[in-house]
Design a protein that fits this description.
The chain contains 10 helices and 6 strands. By secondary structure, it is α/β, with parallel strands linked by helices. It folds into 2 domains: 137 residues, Response regulator (Rossmann fold), CATH 3.40.50; 69 residues, Orthogonal Bundle (Arc Repressor Mutant, subunit A). Strands 2-1-3-4-5-6 form a 6-stranded parallel sheet, sandwiched between helices. 36% of the residues are buried.
Length: 220
Amino acid sequence: MIRVLIADDQAMVRQGFGALLAAQPDLLVVGDAADGAAAVEAARRLDPDVVLMDVRMPVLDGLAATRQLLGDRRADRPRVLILTTFDLDDYVYEALRAGASGFLLKDAPAADLVHAVRVVAAGDALLAPTVTRRLIAEFAARPGHHRPRPTELAGLTPRETEVLRLIARGRSNAEIAADLVVAEQTVKTHVGRILAKLQLRDRAQAVVMAYETGVVAAGE
Protein backbone atom coordinates (compact mmCIF):
# COMPACT_ATOMS: atom_id res chain seq x y z
CA MET A 1 0.00 0.00 0.00
CA ILE A 2 1.37 3.39 -1.03
CA ARG A 3 0.86 6.04 1.67
CA VAL A 4 0.16 9.54 0.30
CA LEU A 5 0.07 12.99 1.90
CA ILE A 6 -1.57 15.87 -0.01
CA ALA A 7 -0.30 19.43 0.53
CA ASP A 8 -2.27 22.22 -1.14
CA ASP A 9 -3.72 25.49 0.12
CA GLN A 10 -7.04 24.93 -1.66
CA ALA A 11 -9.47 22.69 0.22
CA MET A 12 -11.27 21.63 -2.95
CA VAL A 13 -8.02 20.47 -4.51
CA ARG A 14 -7.09 18.47 -1.41
CA GLN A 15 -10.53 16.87 -1.30
CA GLY A 16 -10.63 16.15 -5.02
CA PHE A 17 -7.18 14.61 -5.17
CA GLY A 18 -7.88 12.74 -1.95
CA ALA A 19 -11.06 11.17 -3.31
CA LEU A 20 -9.35 10.24 -6.58
CA LEU A 21 -6.39 8.57 -4.91
CA ALA A 22 -8.40 6.91 -2.13
CA ALA A 23 -10.48 5.14 -4.79
CA GLN A 24 -7.37 3.25 -5.92
CA PRO A 25 -6.89 -0.16 -4.24
CA ASP A 26 -3.15 0.32 -3.78
CA LEU A 27 -3.17 3.93 -2.51
CA LEU A 28 -3.91 5.20 1.00
CA VAL A 29 -4.29 8.92 1.74
CA VAL A 30 -2.88 9.32 5.25
CA GLY A 31 -3.47 13.06 5.62
CA ASP A 32 -3.36 16.52 4.10
CA ALA A 33 -1.93 19.96 4.80
CA ALA A 34 -2.89 23.51 3.80
CA ASP A 35 0.60 25.06 3.90
CA GLY A 36 4.22 24.03 3.56
CA ALA A 37 5.08 24.13 7.25
CA ALA A 38 2.11 21.89 8.08
CA ALA A 39 3.16 19.58 5.25
CA VAL A 40 6.63 19.13 6.73
CA GLU A 41 5.20 18.44 10.18
CA ALA A 42 2.58 16.02 8.84
CA ALA A 43 5.11 14.16 6.69
CA ARG A 44 7.41 13.59 9.64
CA ARG A 45 4.50 12.44 11.80
CA LEU A 46 2.55 10.33 9.29
CA ASP A 47 5.47 8.80 7.37
CA PRO A 48 3.99 8.87 3.84
CA ASP A 49 5.71 7.24 0.89
CA VAL A 50 4.77 10.11 -1.43
CA VAL A 51 3.95 13.77 -0.75
CA LEU A 52 1.91 15.63 -3.37
CA MET A 53 3.32 19.13 -2.91
CA ASP A 54 1.78 22.32 -4.28
CA VAL A 55 4.26 25.09 -5.07
CA ARG A 56 2.41 28.24 -4.06
CA MET A 57 1.31 27.86 -0.44
CA PRO A 58 1.28 30.22 2.58
CA VAL A 59 3.65 30.10 5.57
CA LEU A 60 6.17 27.99 3.66
CA ASP A 61 6.05 27.42 -0.09
CA GLY A 62 6.28 23.96 -1.62
CA LEU A 63 9.88 24.31 -2.74
CA ALA A 64 11.09 25.34 0.72
CA ALA A 65 9.01 22.55 2.27
CA THR A 66 10.57 20.05 -0.13
CA ARG A 67 14.06 21.23 0.80
CA GLN A 68 13.25 20.79 4.50
CA LEU A 69 11.78 17.33 4.03
CA LEU A 70 14.54 15.99 1.83
CA GLY A 71 17.44 17.80 3.43
CA ASP A 72 17.50 15.92 6.72
CA ARG A 73 19.02 12.80 5.11
CA ARG A 74 16.72 10.34 6.87
CA ALA A 75 16.71 6.95 5.17
CA ASP A 76 12.91 6.93 5.16
CA ARG A 77 12.44 10.31 3.50
CA PRO A 78 9.29 10.43 1.37
CA ARG A 79 9.30 10.96 -2.37
CA VAL A 80 7.96 14.38 -3.37
CA LEU A 81 5.78 14.93 -6.41
CA ILE A 82 5.42 18.65 -7.16
CA LEU A 83 1.97 19.73 -8.34
CA THR A 84 1.33 23.18 -9.75
CA THR A 85 -0.71 25.14 -12.25
CA PHE A 86 2.51 26.73 -13.48
CA ASP A 87 5.31 25.29 -15.61
CA LEU A 88 7.22 28.55 -15.79
CA ASP A 89 9.90 30.43 -13.87
CA ASP A 90 12.47 28.49 -11.88
CA TYR A 91 9.94 26.04 -10.43
CA VAL A 92 11.16 23.08 -12.44
CA TYR A 93 14.83 23.71 -11.82
CA GLU A 94 14.48 24.53 -8.13
CA ALA A 95 12.08 21.67 -7.41
CA LEU A 96 14.44 19.11 -8.91
CA ARG A 97 17.46 20.64 -7.20
CA ALA A 98 15.52 20.42 -3.92
CA GLY A 99 15.24 16.69 -4.50
CA ALA A 100 11.73 16.30 -5.89
CA SER A 101 11.19 13.10 -7.83
CA GLY A 102 8.50 14.39 -10.13
CA PHE A 103 6.76 17.48 -11.43
CA LEU A 104 3.21 17.38 -12.75
CA LEU A 105 0.82 20.09 -13.84
CA LYS A 106 -2.54 20.19 -12.08
CA ASP A 107 -4.44 20.16 -15.36
CA ALA A 108 -3.05 16.71 -16.22
CA PRO A 109 -5.68 13.95 -16.61
CA ALA A 110 -6.67 12.10 -13.43
CA ALA A 111 -5.11 8.89 -14.71
CA ASP A 112 -1.77 10.70 -15.10
CA LEU A 113 -1.82 11.75 -11.45
CA VAL A 114 -2.50 8.20 -10.25
CA HIS A 115 0.24 6.90 -12.54
CA ALA A 116 2.65 9.58 -11.31
CA VAL A 117 2.16 8.61 -7.67
CA ARG A 118 2.88 4.97 -8.46
CA VAL A 119 5.95 5.79 -10.56
CA VAL A 120 7.44 8.05 -7.91
CA ALA A 121 6.65 5.60 -5.10
CA ALA A 122 8.47 2.87 -7.02
CA GLY A 123 11.63 4.97 -6.91
CA ASP A 124 11.60 6.30 -10.45
CA ALA A 125 11.29 9.92 -11.52
CA LEU A 126 8.48 11.48 -13.46
CA LEU A 127 8.92 14.54 -15.63
CA ALA A 128 6.13 15.72 -17.87
CA PRO A 129 7.36 16.46 -21.42
CA THR A 130 6.73 20.19 -20.99
CA VAL A 131 8.75 20.08 -17.78
CA THR A 132 11.71 18.41 -19.46
CA ARG A 133 11.65 21.11 -22.13
CA ARG A 134 11.53 23.82 -19.48
CA LEU A 135 14.45 22.24 -17.66
CA ILE A 136 16.56 22.18 -20.83
CA ALA A 137 15.59 25.78 -21.59
CA GLU A 138 16.64 26.74 -18.05
CA PHE A 139 20.14 25.42 -18.58
CA ALA A 140 20.30 26.93 -22.07
CA ALA A 141 19.69 30.33 -20.48
CA ARG A 142 22.60 29.86 -18.08
CA PRO A 143 25.60 29.19 -20.36
CA GLY A 144 28.88 28.48 -18.65
CA HIS A 145 27.39 28.20 -15.17
CA HIS A 146 28.36 24.58 -14.66
CA ARG A 147 29.34 23.26 -11.28
CA PRO A 148 32.56 21.22 -11.06
CA ARG A 149 32.27 17.64 -12.20
CA PRO A 150 32.19 15.25 -9.23
CA THR A 151 34.97 12.69 -9.26
CA GLU A 152 32.32 9.97 -9.39
CA LEU A 153 31.58 10.86 -13.01
CA ALA A 154 34.99 9.50 -13.95
CA GLY A 155 33.86 6.14 -12.60
CA LEU A 156 31.14 5.75 -15.21
CA THR A 157 31.83 3.43 -18.11
CA PRO A 158 31.47 4.85 -21.64
CA ARG A 159 28.12 3.06 -22.00
CA GLU A 160 26.88 4.41 -18.65
CA THR A 161 27.87 7.93 -19.72
CA GLU A 162 25.94 7.40 -22.94
CA VAL A 163 22.88 6.25 -20.99
CA LEU A 164 23.19 9.27 -18.68
CA ARG A 165 23.14 11.59 -21.69
CA LEU A 166 20.00 9.89 -23.01
CA ILE A 167 18.32 10.15 -19.59
CA ALA A 168 19.10 13.88 -19.60
CA ARG A 169 17.41 14.23 -22.98
CA GLY A 170 14.19 12.85 -21.48
CA ARG A 171 14.37 9.34 -22.96
CA SER A 172 12.50 6.53 -21.20
CA ASN A 173 14.15 3.16 -20.55
CA ALA A 174 12.29 1.68 -23.52
CA GLU A 175 13.44 4.51 -25.80
CA ILE A 176 17.03 4.17 -24.59
CA ALA A 177 16.88 0.42 -25.22
CA ALA A 178 15.69 1.07 -28.78
CA ASP A 179 18.38 3.72 -29.37
CA LEU A 180 21.17 1.44 -28.14
CA VAL A 181 19.66 -1.80 -29.51
CA VAL A 182 19.79 -3.56 -26.14
CA ALA A 183 17.21 -5.13 -23.82
CA GLU A 184 15.20 -2.80 -21.58
CA GLN A 185 16.39 -4.76 -18.54
CA THR A 186 19.97 -3.96 -19.57
CA VAL A 187 19.09 -0.26 -19.56
CA LYS A 188 17.53 -0.60 -16.09
CA THR A 189 20.76 -2.16 -14.87
CA HIS A 190 22.80 0.70 -16.34
CA VAL A 191 20.49 3.29 -14.76
CA GLY A 192 20.76 1.61 -11.36
CA ARG A 193 24.55 1.60 -11.56
CA ILE A 194 24.64 5.25 -12.66
CA LEU A 195 22.50 6.34 -9.72
CA ALA A 196 24.55 4.27 -7.28
CA LYS A 197 27.91 5.54 -8.56
CA LEU A 198 26.79 9.18 -8.56
CA GLN A 199 24.94 8.81 -5.24
CA LEU A 200 21.68 10.09 -6.73
CA ARG A 201 18.16 9.19 -5.67
CA ASP A 202 16.53 9.03 -9.08
CA ARG A 203 16.47 10.08 -12.72
CA ALA A 204 15.36 13.63 -11.92
CA GLN A 205 18.57 14.28 -10.01
CA ALA A 206 20.53 12.60 -12.81
CA VAL A 207 19.05 15.07 -15.32
CA VAL A 208 20.05 18.03 -13.16
CA MET A 209 23.58 16.72 -12.63
CA ALA A 210 24.07 15.96 -16.33
CA TYR A 211 23.28 19.53 -17.35
CA GLU A 212 24.94 21.27 -14.42
CA THR A 213 28.21 19.44 -14.90
CA GLY A 214 28.23 19.77 -18.69
CA VAL A 215 27.87 16.06 -19.43
CA VAL A 216 25.08 17.22 -21.73
CA ALA A 217 24.90 20.71 -23.19
CA ALA A 218 21.49 22.30 -23.58
CA GLY A 219 20.51 22.18 -27.23
CA GLU A 220 22.44 19.01 -28.04
